[in-house]
Amino acid sequence: MAKIKVLSLPSRHPYTSKLNTGRIHFINPNSDLFSRRLCTPEYLNDEFPHNSYDIVHIHFSFDKLTLEGLQDALQYFKKNNKPIVWTLHSKESQRIRNYGDGKYQKLLFKYADKIICPTTGAKMWCESTLGIHTSNIEVIPLGFMSDPRDIKRLQKSTIKDSKLFTMLVGEFRQNKEFLQSVVNFLQCTDLLDYKLQLIFKPIPVIDENSQLRQDIVFFYKLVQNPRIEILSRPEITNDELNMAFLRSHAVIIAYKWGTHSGQIEQAKDCGCHAVVSNVGFYKEQWQDVCLYKYNEKDPIETARNYTNALIEIAQRPSIKPLGMVRLKELNDSVNNHVRIYEGLIAKFSN
Fold first, then answer.
1. Which of 3, 108, 222, 348 could form a disulfide linkage to 25, CB 3.0–4.6 angstroms apart?
2. Are 241 and 256 in contact (CB under 8 A)?
3. Closest Cα to residue 110, out of 77, 66, 65?
4. Sign of dihedral through CA atoms 314, 315, 317, 321?
């Protein structure tokens, strides 16, 4: 059977790239047109003409465009009779709180011919906030972030450390709490023989206004603690990240706001417990996560809740990677995407 040709926005992320298999063919592999501000009608016409793909699938990073830029792209796809699928990964921008005041999501809700949510909770939020869509919203779980075949290979040279926790800070996005969570870990007397591995991109000490960022200065001082291990460079390979998780007893996901988390999926992939703030639909992703109540107005309560969660997870026995069952999940996900794509293509061809 012919492959379904998809313009995937983006296509390079581990969540999206794994869908480029079987009946699904990405015409723009290893790209992120939104982040590079290349999703303009002019660029698309030159590099990915509309007759080279059957469908457009939008995931995330669309807030890297202006609202006008996103609308221009959506109108371009509509003008060329291309079905638009939107997967609602996040209720709002993960970079800047209340960025666009929900207008990006409203635009996508308006123009999308089909909406997918990774959890039922996200579907219910979408319907209660944006309205009832013209087409039934599908629920398709995120699935693995780390290919189980890679995990099987890397396990042979990696030993689980029952006293190692890990925080993937990444790019210091605004929705990630990376100060109080580290302080509380280091202060907890029940964890004095535990270490914390921090993974992050190079520290941006100066902000966009050429001012010294005091939070980063404080973070720099924190990471000098001998119980802190650091993995930091501009680019960290998938193997390095997987090995960091495979070594770890647990991962800490300290979000200030959120919806879904690829780190939870990677924790399952690599056999890590997960300590997670209760600001998203994380229990739906994995029933075994240890949630703690995040109260923005009461940091003392948050610190207490978070520390108790750390202690609880430290007492749990280490676990193993989920394994090849994740490939079965991927097959189900691909089949569901193919079903949605085929339905839309048939509708648009009539």
1. 3
2. no
3. 77
4. negative
Distance of CA 302 to the CA centre of its chain: 23
Give the torsion sign (CA, 12, 323, 278, 136). positive
Closest CA to 22 of 343, 350, 342, 264: 342
Distance CA 40, CA 69 (A): 7
Residue 260, CB-side half-sphere exposure with 13 Å CA sphere: 27
Q: Using alpha carbons, select from 274, 264, 349, 267 the residue that is nearest to residue 309.
A: 274
Alpha-carbon gap, residue 255 to 329, rounded angstroms: 26
Task: Return the structure tokens found at 158.
Answer: 């990696």
The candidate with the shortest Cα–Cα distance to 104, out of 118, 91, 113, is 91
* Structure-block tokens of residue 116: 């997918």
- For residue 12, CA distances in Å to 29, 230, 237, 253, 348 come to 6, 25, 13, 23, 27
Distance, CA of 264 to chain centre: 9
Cα separation of 350 and 344, whole Å? 10
How many residues are listed for the chain in this entry? Answer: 350
Three-state SS across 187-253? HCHHHCCCEEEEEECCCCCECCCCCECHHHHHHHHHCCCCCEEEEECCCCCHHHHHHHHHHEEEEEE
**Opening angle at CA 204, ends 200 and 210, nearest 5:** 170
pLDDT in tens, the chain (350 residues): 689 999 999 999 999 999 999 999 999 999 999 999 999 999 999 999 999 999 999 999 999 999 999 999 999 999 999 999 999 999 999 888 989 999 999 999 999 999 999 999 999 999 999 999 999 999 999 999 999 999 999 999 999 999 999 999 998 889 999 999 999 999 999 999 999 999 999 987 888 788 899 999 999 999 999 999 999 999 999 999 999 999 999 999 999 999 999 999 999 999 999 999 999 999 999 999 999 999 999 999 999 999 999 999 999 999 999 999 999 999 999 999 999 999 999 999 97
Distance of CA 153 to the CA centre of its chain: 24
> In this structure, what DSSP letter does residue 186 have?
H
Of 52, 49, 51, 2, nearest in space to 24 by CA: 2
